[in-house]
Amino acid sequence: MWLSVKSGSCTCTPNLNPSESLLTEFGEDGWYGPIQELNNEQQKWYIRTYKVTDYVHRGIGIAGELDERHIRWSVVAEVGENYIALYWDGFTFSSVTQEHIGQPAQFPFWNHIPGFFDELANHCQAKWQHPELHKLILHDMWDKYLNKSPYKWRHLRVRAEASGLVINAHSSGVKEIDVRGLQALSQKLTQSVLSAIGIRDDSEKMNNAENAILWTLIKEWGTKSYEFSLHKEFASSNVEGENLQNEHLIKAHCYFRFKPNSKTQDCLQHLKCYSGYYGGSTGVLNFILRELGLRG
User: Fold this and answer.
1) 230 close to 291: Cβ distance less than 8 angstroms
2) 35-66 b/e with 16+ CB inside 10 Å = b?
3) b or e along 123-142 (b: 16 or more beta carbons within 10 Å of the residue's beta carbon)?
4) Can you give the pLDDT at residue 236?
5) CA angle, corner 282, sides to 276 and 284, nearest 5?
6) Handedness of CA 153, 156, 160, 163 (dihedral sign)
7) Cβ-contact 132, 14 below 8 angstroms
8) Quick one: pLDDT at residue 174?
9) In the 3-class helix/strand/coil scheme, how is the chain assigned residue by residue?
């Protein structure tokens, strides 16, 4: 579900703990690998394991007791010729305070992923750095695909904060706002403003004004994260004639790391990925690498 990407190169392929041992034992915290495909020297994979202590309550009443168990959290690193990508899944776990189990909470992966990048960079003698994801998504790709036929770009969610106004809030009990509400708001503001200055029934100006308002709300209002989807329409023929089909290119929720000192996942540049038509984290990685010019 989760992905974080850096660009750069490494100078060696270290042999770390044997990855096959993870099939038969829990393993120790650390790196395992490499794993390589035959006839593919440019890509290799490593696995970073981390033991998480979790608690469950067994039994009822006075006879009940706390049961400690361990979760083996695994982060997979894909190392290419000019990039590294870390993949992982999130999960919830329970901690204990004074013999009481706390409410299940999201495991704070953002506290560990930066260190895992550094560890593997040290092993591989590599220099990797995050690309400017905000510039890539909200500037380069926006200009390349938004309102450009045959592409269809959908705004799905946004989290932003500026001038004392918060649009959405994550990990604070406030549900994420569906951007369709922002689109409805932008349409209403556009109608009100153009009506006030005597412009009516001008679809081109209405569209331009609405896009300008959305531009401000999504791109210039202290955006912390943004979710979108992109697909490409094409015609296909069958016995009933031509039909429009969709090529699903990417769907992701992008966290831009605009609050590096945050105690939430806003301190980490990463992407939440979706499976199905969009191919999960592998599909997102391939698309991002092509847009960065790191893969043909």
Assistant:
1) no
2) eeeeeeeeebbbbbbbeeebbeeeeeeeeeee
3) bbebebebbebbeebbeebb
4) 66
5) 80
6) positive
7) no
8) 35
9) CEEEEEEEECCCCCCCECHHHHHCCCCCCEEEEEECCCCCCCCEEEEEEEEEEEEEEECCHHHCEEEEEEEEEEEEEEECCCEEEEEECCCEECCEECCEECCCEECCHHHCHHHHHHHHHHHHCCEEECCCHHHHHHHHHHHHHCCCCCEEEEEEEEEEEECCEEECCCCCCCCCCEHHHHHHHHHHHHHHHHHHCCCCCCHHHHHHHHHHHHHHHHHCCCEEEEEEEEEEEEEEEECCEEEEEEEEEEEEEEECCCCCCCCCHHHCCEEEECCHHHCHHHHHHHHHHHHHCCCC
Residues belonging to the chain: 296
Distance (Å, whole) CA 271 – CA 266: 11
pLDDT tens digit string along 176-228?
445 556 666 677 777 778 778 877 777 777 777 777 777 777 777 678 899 99
Interatomic CA distance for residues 270 and 286, integer angstroms: 15
Name which of 21-35, 109-123, 155-169 the model is least confident about.
155-169
Q: How far is the C-alpha of 150 from the C-alpha of 199, rounded, in Å? A: 30
236: Cβ–Cβ under 8 A, 6 or more apart, which residues?
A: 242, 243, 244, 245
Q: How far apart are the first and last CA of the chain?
A: 24
Distance CA 155, CA 230 (A): 9
Only one residue has tokens 């969709």, namely 246
Q: How far is CA 8 from CA 5, 79, 131, 162, in A?
A: 10, 10, 10, 33
